[in-house]
Structures are given as C-alpha cells and as structure tokens.
Amino acid sequence: MRFKIYRYNPETDKKPYMQDFVLDNISDDMMLRDALLLIKAEDETFTFRHSCGEGVCGSDAVNINGTNGLACKSRLSELKEPIEVRPVPSMPVIRDLVVDMEQFYHHYRAIKPYLTVKDPVPEVEFLQTPQQREKLDGLYECILCGCCTTACPSFWWNPDKFRGPAALLQSYRFLADSRDQATSERLQELDGPYRMFRCHSIMNCVNVCPKGLNPTEAIHSIKKLMVKDLV
Amino acid sequence: MSLQAQGMRAWLLQRLTAVYIAVYSLSLIIWIIINYPINYSGWYSVFSHPVILISTVIFYLSLFVHAWVGIRDILVDYAKPSSVRFILLTALALFLLVMTTWLLLIVISLVKV
Q1: Which residues of A touch B (CB under 8 A)?
Q2: What's the pLDDT at B3?
Q3: Do A94 and A129 reside in the same domain of the chain?
Q4: What does the buried/exposed string (b/e) look like for B63-90 if buried means 16 or more CB atoms within 10 Å of the residue's CB?
C-alpha cells in the first residue's frame, strides 16, 4: 500500500515536502493510525499525535486524501491509493503532522465551557428530567479533535475572530443545558459580525465530524435563541 | 435600519428581506404568466395602483438591504486589507444610494401622473 506523507522539521527543512512510503503487511482491519505507527517504526523521525486509538481522545485528527478525519477511525481498505496524509489545514505546523492547536483552544476557552449558576447551588445535586438531558445529545459527544474547525473556510479566513464550529457547538451545549443560567451573557458574547456570524452554513464541519455531530445545526439553534432573546 | 447593522441584526434583516423578495418575485412571475401577453397600459395601470406601488418599493428597498448585508459579508471574508475593503464598501454604498434615488424618482413620476 502506497502512502504520501507530509514531512516538515523546522530545524532542518526549509520547506515542507511529501515523502513516499510503501507498506506491504497491511491487513483489511487496519486503520490509518496503525499504518502511521508502522511508518514511524521504519522512520523514527516521523512525528504525529495519537493516543487512545478508538476515536475517543481526539488526538490524531489529520487531513486524509483532502478530507479531515481521525487516523484511528479511517479504515485503510476504504481509502484511495496513494493515501495522502497532511496536517489539518490552516493551523501552524510544529513538525510533520503535529499542529499548534492554541488558536482552537483559545476559542474554546472563550465560550466559557462550564456551567454558570447564579442561584444558590443545591445541597446534593442538580436534578434534570430525562427530557432536559435529551437536549444535550448530539452536543456533549464532541471530543475537540478540531476536524470541523480546521475544515471550515470561515475559520480559514478569520481564525483570530471566528470562534469556529467546535467552540460554537460547545457554546450551544451549555446554552441548551437546563442547569446553566448565563444564557444572555453567552448570547451577547457571540453577537457581532465575527464570533458566530461568519458562519455561512457551508457545512464542511458536518461532513468531516468523526462523531457524526452537527455544528451547523447547533449554530442555527444559537441564532434562534438570539431571535427569541431579541423579541 | 442603519448601515451599522452587524451580527444578529444583519442576519435577521437578511432573512426577513429574503422572505419578502421571494414572495414578491414569485407573485410577480405568476401574475405575468396569468396575464401574458401584457401591454404597456396594462403594466402601467397595475404598477401605479397604490398597493402594488408600495409593495414594489418595499421589494426594491429589501433588495438593497439584502445586497448591502450580503455583499458586505463577502467583502469581510475576502477583502482583507482594510483600505481595499473600505473602497469596495464605499463603492457598494454609493451604488445602492444611486439605485435608491433612481427608485424614488420613478415613484414620484408614477404618483404625479
């Protein structure tokens, strides 16, 4: 099986380049992450992030044949050869497939990804009805791998100002939570031309999300909340 | 409505004007199909009727607002240097102002006669 891997070591390389690898011992049930590990065994200077290997940690988001995805959840037999692996687009490359995610986390921190409660906190626990809990389905599963945000053209054009689909989905995760009491502050923070309204429903985020989530729908729900807040 | 409409307000204006533009255009197309062929006097009498005239003026104003918000969105995304963006936005605003003035002149001429 043939691979084209993006290589860049800022200490020795002037420019990034694509390196070819050929692996023979590929079985049907292997994922791209397994192949990257074999490549690393062949060439130990090759660097990429990975951890759990089962789509839970969100470490190994890479660009596979032009589409963002998790290496550990991409079956080799379903990919077209040569398999081209690059770092996720628009992020500063630290080395090979490893990118600097600081911008992404900055936006995540900015949406205050925690419950804000103003009433006195209950002595034992917060109670939620099954219906209230159901509203968080399709939102809480996000693993912050960054596939969606780095596939979003609006984020490419305005990475410093647009929050990106991942952060906005998380924002709605807290807006939709019956226990959170900071709705109007959250909505106010997202108003303005850039933070949320750079989203033009391109839906690249929905296409690439390895967890099958729908950030575009979440963004639309935030807009609906804003209209409700206005009226 | 001000040229300052940003974020939420701009988005809402875009949506509302879109609905009005769609409804007006569809009704106009249907009207043309039903009454085809239409001669000058037919056109004239329909478009000087106050209700049609007012809804037409609202249509054009909606179109201008819609164009302002939409093209500004594109410029904010793609015209990065602020000088270029400023020049293009000014040109757009001037163009829309000229169109509005023209629209008003037409309305005045229709009302007078």
Answers
A1: 154, 157-158, 191-193, 196-198, 200, 223, 226-227, 230
A2: 52
A3: no
A4: bbbbebbeebbebbbebeeeeeeeebbe
Q: Which residues of chain A have pLDDT under 70?
A: none
Tell whether the model's pLDDT for residue B37 goes beyond 90.
Answer: no
One domain for residues A177 and A76: no
Local structure of residue A87 (DSSP, 8 states): P
Rounded-to-integer distance, Cα B13 and Cα B11, Å: 5
Domain containing A30: what range? Answer: 2-99
B1 pLDDT exceeds 50?
no
**Do residue A115 and residue A210 come from a single domain?**
yes
Q: CB–CB of B7 and A230 under 8 A?
A: no
* ipTM exceeds 0.90, yes or no: no
- My answer on whether A95 and A133 are in the same domain is no
Q: Are A123 and A185 members of one domain?
A: yes
The domains found in chain B, sorted by start residue, are 7-112 (1.20.1300.10)
* Residues A80-96: tens digit of each pLDDT: 999 999 999 999 999 99
Which pairs from B16-19 meet CB under 8 Å and 24+ separation? B16/B62, B17/B62, B17/B63, B17/B65, B17/B66, B17/B69, B18/B66
Same domain for A93 and A129, yes or no, is: no
Of the candidates A71, A99, A127, which is a domain's last residue? Answer: A99
The Cα of B9 is separated from the nearest Cα of chain A by a number of Å equal to 9
| Mutation target vs B (from A162, A197, A223, A224; most B CBs, 10 A cutoff) | A197
Q: Which residues of B sit within 8 Å Cβ distance of A? A: 6-8, 10-12, 73, 76-78
